[in-house]
């Protein structure tokens, strides 16, 4: 298999074609921002790109400083040089192996080379990352889109743009378990949260096995535990299964007391992408050129992983982004797919929403096409 390095451009040009605006899953047409601006004179993306290049080094910061920069940058459509210079971006990560794209983009300097000042914020405890991104407290995060659908349906201001990678979620049972997913009826499943990526994804596997996954249906018991205790809870028999992401999901398999019953890389619900980029809607609406630069550098980080798994594993461990040992992290990275895409995410979004709606987590009146349009944008990217 040939690999794309982080320094190579995507095979398809990312510049939008003004004559062929992007089409959303429902068929609605998304007008390209640059095309509209160019008719008036200078394209907005061209103007801000020039400003960023001229600004040189960016001020590193986050927290209150980042929020001040945000309010300044939103003061005008194009922003001034000072506004761009003082506009740091904050990206949430959860400490999972699959956070590699953002970690690589930060540590290998891809964000900096794109003229961006990005701070990675480690989510803690029961922090509601959906609300944090939707409210603009943070600019972006990643995760499987299923876990973001209910918050978007309820009004969280979030936009999906690019799929980052495949793999990372596992449903794990003790080695003594006999049967299939259907045999989990009545079981207690340990999870990091009721709205986690794993909870939402494996709810579809339970549905396919004839099990109603909704907590109120009580056909399974979802037991929320601190993520760091999930593997031990399975080993001690405190739960019948765990559904979570690597490296925690892989630990029972590695230590030979657990086995993988299902994953998001196989079966009826196998996905082209596990994690996608979720951006604050105001960032997309008011600062589209900045948002696009973020996506392009972030996805460059994803492409870099393929063929550099050993290096990336060492970065994740040595820089303390991920808890684990380098050989195990490297093995997990080699098991995922690193071919980020906006187009392929768009193609998978509507069918995914239609399937997910059947779990009951979305309102019965939810319109999958309208939800796809509400949640997704291309930012003019064509790969």
Query: Counting H and I runs of at least 4 residues, what is the number of helices?
Result: 17
- What's the end-to-end separation, in Å? 20 Å
Number of domains: 2
Number of strands: 12
Q: Kindly state the mean pLDDT as a whole number?
A: 82
**Main sheet: strands, sense, barrel:** 5 strands, mixed
- Strand portion: 5-15%
Uncertain runs are 1-86
Shape: globular
What is the string of helix and strand elements? Answer: EEHHHHEHHEHEHEEEHEHEHEEHHHHHH
Adjacency order of strands in the biggest sheet: 9-8-10-7-11
CATH architecture of the largest domain: 3-Layer(aba) Sandwich
What percent of the residues sit in helical stretches (DSSP H or I)?
25-40%
How would you classify the helix and strand content by structural class?
alpha/beta
| CATH class bucket of the largest domain | Alpha Beta
CATH fold node name of the largest domain: D-Maltodextrin-Binding Protein, domain 2
User: Rg to the nearest angstrom?
Assistant: 21 Å
CATH superfamily of the largest domain: Periplasmic binding protein-like II
């Amino acid at each position: 298999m040939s690999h794309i390095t982080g320094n190579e451009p995507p095979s398809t040009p990312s510049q939008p074609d003004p004559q062929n605006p992007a089409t959303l899953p429902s068929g609605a047409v998304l007008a390209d921002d640059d095309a509209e601006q160019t008719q008036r004179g200078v394209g907005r993306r061209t103007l801000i790109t020039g400003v960023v290049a001229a600004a040189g080094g960016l001020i590193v910061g986050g927290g209150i400083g980042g929020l001040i920069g945000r309010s300044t940058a939103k003061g005008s459509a194009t922003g001034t040089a000072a506004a761009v210079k003082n506009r740091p971006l904050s990206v949430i990560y959860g400490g999972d192996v699959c956070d590699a794209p953002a970690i690589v983009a930060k540590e290998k300097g891809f964000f900096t080379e794109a003229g961006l000042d990005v701070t990675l914020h480690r989510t803690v405890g029961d922090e509601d990352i959906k609300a944090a991104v939707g409210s603009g407290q943070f600019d972006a995060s990643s995760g499987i889109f299923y876990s973001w659908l209910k918050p978007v349906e309820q009004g969280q201001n979030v936009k999906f743009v690019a799929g980052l990678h495949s793999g990372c979620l596992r449903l794990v049972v003790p080695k003594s378990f006999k049967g299939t997913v259907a045999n989990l009826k009545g079981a207690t499943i340990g999870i990091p949260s009721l709205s986690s990526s794993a909870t939402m994804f494996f709810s579809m596997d339970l549905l396919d096995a004839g099990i109603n996954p909704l907590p109120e249906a009580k056909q399974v018991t979802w037991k929320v535990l601190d993520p760091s205790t999930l593997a031990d809870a399975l080993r001690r028999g405190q739960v019948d299964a765990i559904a979570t992401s690597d490296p925690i999901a892989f630990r029972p398999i590695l230590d030979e007391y657990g086995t993988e019953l299902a994953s998001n890389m196989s079966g009826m619900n196998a996905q082209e992408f596990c994690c996608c980029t979720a951006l604050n809607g105001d960032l997309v609406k008011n600062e589209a050129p900045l948002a696009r630069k973020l996506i392009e550098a972030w996805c460059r980080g994803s492409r870099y992983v393929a063929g550099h798994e050993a290096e990336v594993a060492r970065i994740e461990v040595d820089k303390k982004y991920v808890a684990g040992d380098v050989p195990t992290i490297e093995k997990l990275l080699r098991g995922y797919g690193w071919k980020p895409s906006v187009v392929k995410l768009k193609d998978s979004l509507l069918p995914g929403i239609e399937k997910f709606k059947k779990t009951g987590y979305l309102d019965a009146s939810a319109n999958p096409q309208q939800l796809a349009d509400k949640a997704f944008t291309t930012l003019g990217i064509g790969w």
